[in-house]
Amino acid sequence: MRFVDLLSEYHIMPQFPPNVVRQAGSIPVEVTDADLKDRVDLEDLLTITIDGDDAKDFDDAVSLEILENGNFCLGVHIADVTHYVSENSPIDRAAFSRGTSVYLIDTVIPMLPFELSNELCSLKPNQTRLTVSVFMEIDSKGIVKDYKICKSFIKSHQRMTYAKVTKILENDRGLCEKYSHLVPMLKNMKCLADILNKKRVKNGSIEFVTHESKITLDKNGVPTDVCRYPITISNNIIEEFMLMANVTVAKHLSKNDLPCVYRVHESPDFDRVERLAKVLPELGVEFRFKPDMRPRDFQNILESVSSLDTCSVVNYLVLRSMSRARYSENNLGHFGLAFGDYCHFTSPIRRYPDLVVHRILKESLEGEVKTNRLEYFKALTVSASVTASVTESNAAEAELKWKDIKKAEYMTKHIGEKYIATITHVTASGFFAELENTVEGFVPARTIEDDLYMMTDNGLALEGTRSKGRFTIGDKVEVKVVAADIEDAKIDFEVVGSRQLKPLRRKQNKNRSDKKVLSKEEKRVLRKFKAEQREEKQQKRNDRSKADAERYIFENAITYELFQLLDSKYKFKKAEKGFVGVTLRDLASVISAPVYRANLFDIDEVAFENAIVSASMNVRNTFGIICDSFGIEEDEVLVQFAVKYVCKALRHFDDCMQLENINFTKRENEYDSIMNKLKLRRKEER
Fold first, then answer.
1. Which domains does the chain have, with CATH numbers?
2. Which end of the chain is more exposed for a tag (fewer CB within 10 A), N or C?
3. Burial grade of 65 (CB within 10 A; 0-12, 13-18, 19 or more)
4. How far apart (Å, rounded) are the C-alpha atoms in residues 522 and 579?
């Protein structure tokens, strides 16, 4: 898959619209005296940034002092992006539409133009920068005794990296001497972070052990190394400090009855926990099932296996039982972190929900928020929550897909090599195994020559029908890399000692002389098993195919009808039509996603009325982007008509997703009919 195709598949726009480019070009390069008005001067406060070696955008800085009473005064200073990104400006509209920055190994598709993300809003050392600061007085037990939030400006004293800070905390003599002015504060930071982590874990926060991939590319984009991303002491310091700032801001907004985009993580689904309760004892893990499981119960499980070989597998199984974190205008708490109040506030350069939280927070700092503004913010938090959850999912899937592609490309140079791998999960047709460097491959059961292997009822293992030998989740196996398909991002292994697997995408030779020899009973069992698998897979394929078709027709209808509305009004030039079409198609995808997911996967993450609110704001936002891009005046009557059509079409899409059958022509005519009826009604009203 080409890079450009990946971006298109996940509706990621690599370039900013023309109007955003123009506005970004007019942004001042330095902070002015006027910008500093009504802000707390923190330039003399010792503040530093701590990020990765290759970081370009520094949106958070930290400070720490010890108060006279012995408590810590932790300062978290976040870039004040909203000072430069005003409501409904071209940059704001583009940021809303993008939702998040996308990190594709060595390439970043930013939410904000580089003039902001890497320059004016980036907290570079020795440069005055505007911030929103949260000061928290924290005692020796990790309890926030008091806090203060203010608009401020800082001058970061040092740009530090995780690697340097970790070495300093490990008493590297050279670095300790070089940064002697920072060493006392860094050691106090480590002390406070340990206190906060201990308190969080004690309260039940679930500490998953996960392994992120670090992929190194050469100048031509070819992968030269794949390894586990190192998590250091200093990573944990910043994580704990950002968590505290996010919690403090969420509590502040909640306490003052202000709208907020909360980061929520609901308790696990009952059925998932029940399945987990059946699986874990098979791995030797004690698990007492309760309908009202608390975070602490899951953390106890992870702690019990922390020193065992099955640690990573149990982490994986527990993680799979969890709900997915998302954004919501409702304060539902964060189950995994065991926080009653939580939001994202600390990364407004790369996440739109953080930017919305900043906007609401800053307005509340200036005095009582007026009723009309409260209503606007309530609608904004609904729309931003729905849209950001969709764009975040798209970005995460794109990032994972691109990593898998590069891993497959990397492994093409290692065909035939042998490794020790850990079985991570089992399917009816084989099992997946992960190498130490995080590369995962598939071992087809048909290639394990010594027996006929079938998946056990609990889904934990492949078991031989004769020998009863097992390949169980968590087992270490020696595998050989036999195939790597870059296009499909797939890697195939075989268990060492089994017959060789032919390369991917190549037809099997029916005249092979080395096929497994099966008994009549084994053949009967295999036929029955395959028939059941075919039936189950076919039903899933049918459901997915029908849902995909409904979504395709809906998105085509939205794109076509809105394009016709705009083109009939503004008469776009040939060169402009491509941009308008792609922008509208991205809009249609964002609008359809919540309804599609709710019906296909039977999840109720987003109330349908919230999807309607989000769709309405997305239409307005997208029409604004298009009009701004070409310097044309926005027609409010046209916008209202477009919103009305999209909302009616979305309701119809929701109804259609629940039907069993689909007729393409009939369905397309139905969306045409919705538009024609609206046009007729508008004509009669005139």
1. 3-255 (no CATH), 415-517 (2.40.50.140), 543-685 (no CATH)
2. C
3. middle
4. 59
Question: What pLDDT does residue 82 have?
Answer: 96
Q: Are 214 and 54 in contact (CB under 8 A)?
A: no
Token digits for 290?
A: 């309760």
Task: Tell me how far apart the alpha carbons of residues 382 and 5 are, in angstroms, rounded to a whole number.
Answer: 31
Instruction: For residue 260, give both structure tokens.
Output: 């907020």
| Parallel, antiparallel or unpaired: strands 72-79 and 128-138 | antiparallel
CA dihedral 664, 666, 672, 677 (to 10 degrees): -160
CA–CA separation, 426 and 429 (whole Å): 8
Work out the angle between the directed axes of helices 574-600 and 371-411 (0-180°, nearest 10).
90
**Rounded CA separation 20/93 (Å):** 9
What angle, rounded to 10 degrees, do the helices at 183-202 and 233-255 form?
Answer: 60
Q: How far apart are CA 491 and CA 57, in angstroms?
A: 34
Q: Is residue 641 a contact partner of residue 566, using CB atoms and an 8 Å limit?
A: no
Q: Which residues pair with 339 in a beta bridge?
A: 334
How is 256-269 classified by DSSP, letter by letter?
Answer: TT----EEEBPPPP
Q: What are phi and psi of 209, to 5 degrees?
A: -100, 105
pTM, to two decimals: 0.90
User: Residue 392 above 70 pLDDT?
Assistant: yes
**Distance between CA atoms of 115 and 16, rounded to whole angstroms?**
12
Average model confidence (pLDDT) for the chain? Answer: 90
How much is the pLDDT for 543?
Answer: 83
- Strands of the 470-472 sheet, one edge to the other: 453-455, 461-464, 470-472
User: And the tokens for 172?
Assistant: 């590297």
Nearest in space to 561 (alpha carbons), one of 647, 634, 484:
647
User: pLDDT tens-digit profile of 251-289?
Assistant: 999 999 999 999 999 988 888 888 888 788 877 888 777
